[in-house]
């Protein structure tokens, strides 16, 4: 299949083409598949991406996954082998796919501000509205999905710099306050966090909306300035540089005009991952953020990367995953973000993932006939 606007093809493959498939154990996916099924049937279907695969195409597979408990890894793999056809995602420019990773940080916060806790996480403001082709001003790029409604006029919402300088102050939107604006920024990048209060209570926040401006990577800015090396850059090196140059933090962070708003989320079961864009809990090591304009949530993807070894004890990465999230920086048909889990160790794993990878999507056999 060719989609001119995205320039890629789905090429029929076999499970034998999936390097690492026979060593994978996708047993951990079935709970998430049940959650996706419940959302599609009881809430609403996921939006269809440009690849042309629909939530309805997925339902038969999800129905059969309901209550399924494989005895071992081989039986779990056989479930997909019997019901799905793999397709290699071939980029039009011939380049390989690319993966990064994300996690759910744990961050110390206070419910009230003081001299230590000064940097807020904000709820969605009431003057932020959703945009579409019917109400988006002509001077705003079609990528803007949010804007400001003030005095009957829709315009771009204030960006990161304006908000940090006090645009929302005094409106009662603060969920909690953190100690460091760098920590707040990285929670924005991750899109969720566990909040650790001084009294021992744990809270959780997750993405609610954003100001609408495009994401601009501060890492790329620091590479262009020659202060970080392209070959060794990671979340850790970016964070370390920012902490070492406090006088430059605002100017660098404001380069990324995108700003994220949060909502408080359930944390009654701390073993579950955060609920992300697909409206189901993420599964550590098995959840993938994809470009939702191209791909439809809930579909299984097999990701293979011989250079990505630190997630699997030195072995090349090869795992079946579910598309359960998206992100501003996740753009393209073979671009993914791997969820590594919650807390410090998960962050250490996620921060250094920047690897070429091959992307295969598993399509239920009835729908696969349209693409073969």
TrEMBL record:
CDD domains reported in the protein's UniProt record: mlta_B, mltA_like_LT_A
Ranges where the Lytic transglycosylase MltA domain occurs: 106-263
Keywords linked to the UniProt accession: Cell wall biogenesis/degradation, Lyase
Cell wall biogenesis/degradation is among the record's keywords: yes
GO MF terms held by the record: hydrolase activity, hydrolyzing O-glycosyl compounds; peptidoglycan lytic transglycosylase activity
Lyase found in the keyword field: yes
EC number from the UniProt entry: 4.2.2.n1
Pfam families tied to this protein: 3D (PF06725), MltA (PF03562)
Catalytic activity: Exolytic cleavage of the (1->4)-beta-glycosidic linkage between N-acetylmuramic acid (MurNAc) and N-acetylglucosamine (GlcNAc) residues in peptidoglycan, from either the reducing or the non-reducing ends of the peptidoglycan chains, with concomitant formation of a 1,6-anhydrobond in the MurNAc residue
Example GO biological process: peptidoglycan turnover
Any GO CC annotation of this UniProt entry: outer membrane
Highest rank taxon of the organism: Bacteria
Coiled coil: none
Protein name: peptidoglycan lytic exotransglycosylase
């Amino acid at each position: 299949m060719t989609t001119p606007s995205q320039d890629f093809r789905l090429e029929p493959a076999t499970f034998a083409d999936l390097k690492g498939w026979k060593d994978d154990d996708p047993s951990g996916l079935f709970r998430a598949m049940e959650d996706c099924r419940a959302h599609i049937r009881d809430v609403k279907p996921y939006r269809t991406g440009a690849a042309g695969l629909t939530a309805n195409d997925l339902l038969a597979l999800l129905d059969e996954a309901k209550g399924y408990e494989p005895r071992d890894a081989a039986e779990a793999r056989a479930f997909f082998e019997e019901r799905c056809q793999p397709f290699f995602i071939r980029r039009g420019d011939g380049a390989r796919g690319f993966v990064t990773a994300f996690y759910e940080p744990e961050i110390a916060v206070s419910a009230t501000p003081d001299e230590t806790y000064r940097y807020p996480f904000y709820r969605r403001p009431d003057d932020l509205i959703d945009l579409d082709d019917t109400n988006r001003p002509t001077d705003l790029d079609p990528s803007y999905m949010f804007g400001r409604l003030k005095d009957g006029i829709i315009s771009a919402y204030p960006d990161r710099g304006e908000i940090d300088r006090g645009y929302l102050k005094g409106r009662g939107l603060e969920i909690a306050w953190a100690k460091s604006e760098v920590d707040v920024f990285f929670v924005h990048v991750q899109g969720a966090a566990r909040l650790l209060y001084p009294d021992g209570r744990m809270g959780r926040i997750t993405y609610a909306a954003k100001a609408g401006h495009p994401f601009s990577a501060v890492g790329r800015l620091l590479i262009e300035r020659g202060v970080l090396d392209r070959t060794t850059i990671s979340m850790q090196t970016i964070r370390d540089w920012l902490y070492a140059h406090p006088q430059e933090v605002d100017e660098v962070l404001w380069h990324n005009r995108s700003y994220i708003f949060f909502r408080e989320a359930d944390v009654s079961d701390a073993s579950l991952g955060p609920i992300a864009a697909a409206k189901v809990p993420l599964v550590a090591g098995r959840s993938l953020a994809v470009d939702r304009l191209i791909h439809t949530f809930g579909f299984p993807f097999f990701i293979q990367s011989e250079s990505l070894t630190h997630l699997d004890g030195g072995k090349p990465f090869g795992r079946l995953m579910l598309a359960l999230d998206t992100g501003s920086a996740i753009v393209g048909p073979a671009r993914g973000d791997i969820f590594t889990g919650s807390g410090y160790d998960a962050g250490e794993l996620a921060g250094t993932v920047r690897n070429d990878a091959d992307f295969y999507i598993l399509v239920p056999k009835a729908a696969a006939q349209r693409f073969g």
